[in-house]
Amino acid sequence: MSGNEEHFFEGAEKLLEIWFEETSCNNDDLRNISRSDWEDVLSQVNCEIISFSKNDLIDAFVLSESSMFVSKRRWILKTCGTTTPLKCLSQLIKLASLNGYKIITDLFYSRKNFIRPEAQVTPHKGFTEEVSYLDTLFPNGRSYCLGSMNLECWYLYTFSRSDMKLSPGHMINEGVESDPDQTIEILMQNLDQNAMSVFNKKNILSASDATSMSGIDKILPNMHIDDFLFDPCGYSMNGINEKGEYMTIHITPENLFSYVSFETNVAMTNYRNLINQVINTFKPGKFIVTIFANKNH
Question: 147 versus 296: which is more confidently predicted?
Fold first, then answer.
């Protein structure tokens, strides 16, 4: 997330979230996967771990290109640039199986349309290619495009075991309830350059200064923040709280391709105030809001 206006960086992230079926063994936990194994997984994605924070319920990784969150049976990977998150799926599934999780109950893959899709690499050269790749692993997956395909849009691919009558070797227990979960994303472009100036090392000394001066620390005040300021510019942060909820913000501040993403799974009955606070913090020229909730929320 660094550089000057003579180069280009694709700020829009590819977001991958996987839930595994709960097991009868309390020791089964994705957080038992070693850091070296995660580094191997991320090498398939073309990114690396920069910083790490954790509490009793969630592990949070700041990456060279965005973030990864690991809970007991949920895994989230969010990566920007020309990363290849789908390439790590086979390895991730093998590691999960070694740690007790052999059945995926839900998978979500989503992203905004890219500014320069021609710069992406296989299997991310287009949504059709991404869907074809995912279908080889999840033959009952479903794909969607929301918005205008030739202007601004948001792509979504989902797989849910509840959509299937049978999975290989397993009967579906349709009485199983999933945990309540919700995610809001705010994807922003054409940001106010005064707001973006805070995320440049020419103007600020540290990530913590950028976090406080921008007002990021006030968006969800009960979060423990792990932040990073890139050289010469760019910013990432993860926040986690004692409930196991997370927030994450990633900022590409360069004027020609400025981009900010905000994401959290904090449960709220109304997101209006949160959306307004995020928009007032970064002052985008345009933005997309997505809210995803399962039927139990």
Answer: 147
Q: Is 250 a catalytic residue?
A: yes
More confident residue, 167 or 1: 1
Query: Is 66 a residue of the active site?
Result: yes
Instruction: Judge whether 7 counts as a catalytic residue.
Output: no
In the set 64, 236, 258, 261, the catalytic residue is 236
Q: Which of 64, 66, 71, 261 is catalytic?
A: 66
Here the tokens at position 131 are 């869907």
Q: How far apart, in Å, are the Cα atoms of 198 and each of 129, 187, 206, 240?
A: 37, 19, 10, 23
97 given a catalytic annotation:
no
Q: Is 9 annotated as a binding residue?
A: yes
- Residue 273's identity, in one-letter code, is N
| The pLDDT of residue 139 is above 60 | yes
Q: Could you tell me the domains of the chain?
A: 14-179 (3.60.90.10), 183-293 (3.60.90.10)
Is 230 flagged in the annotation as binding? yes
For residue 268, give every residue at least 6 positions away whose Cβ sits within 8 Å of its Cβ, in sequence order, or none.
Answer: 274
In the chain, % of residues over pLDDT 70: 91
What confidence score (pLDDT) does residue 170 get? 36
